[in-house]
Amino acid sequence: MPQIVRIATRKSPLALWQAEHVARRLESLHPGLQVELVKMVTRGDQILDAPLAKVGGKGLFVKELEHGLLAGDADMAVHSMKDVPADFPEGLYLPVILEREDPRDALVSLKFPSLDALPADARIGTSSLRRQAQIRQRLPHARITALRGNVGTRLEKLETEGLDAIILAAAGLKRLGLGHRMTEALGTTVSLPAVGQGAIGIECRVGDCVIEDLIRPLHHRDTADCVFAERAFNARLDGGCQVPIAGHAELRPEGLLLTGIVADPEGGSFVMDQIQGDQAEAVELGRRLAEQLLAAGADRILEKVLANA
Q1: Which domains does the chain have, with CATH numbers?
Q2: Least confident of 179-183, 192-196, 296-300
């Protein structure tokens, strides 16, 4: 066992919390092991004056970390799974997904006690086309304001920009000790989460058996199967920050239930469906659900959104 291992991570408070969480778990599992954080800045961190949907490209928050892995500057990288593209660079893969935190979206407001209490023309801050599309189904006249920056910055903008509410991931708030700032946790029937939301993944070099052995005990199979189903669904739709796609899987006594949405961010067309099956067929379930949505008109929504991007 090596004495020191290095984790590549972004510098945001949430990314650092996630990397430190993995570091603590590894040091607890392997007495004598020391874990160092290699802090990096990604393109997504640098471009804060434009919505992600306008920036374009995939892997905005992971590419620099992957370059560090390939260059040998780090032994593993810790990611929010919702940021991880479907495909990995040659020589890298993601063998471990930790147990999921709360996957829901959260409404934060200083003025109103719930989403239903917001005025029809509420000013709502969000960086996500997925969230925007679903909110417009309930509040078609809402004024959506693009919201970028880390969790703390977004909470500050709630006050400084006179917003009625903002929408963030519940997991991020809870991990940073800010769960008390949640006004309302939005049920998945109100705001279906992003693919992989709430889950942390660990990426490493293919064939690095020492690192694989160290991190393997952190893998949570039930979470991984749900995330694999969601990612297969998203991959078939060629999803990314530029398209309003939501996908969430959960395990029930009768099997894995996967729900997917493709929606017009301006509140127009909206396609939603579900599929249920054996947990062992998670990836196939994801692909099949994507085909169902494409057949129901998701292809036309995606073409329109990409044409206007």
Answers
A1: 4-98+199-219 (3.40.190.10), 105-186 (3.40.190.10), 230-308 (3.30.160.40)
A2: 296-300
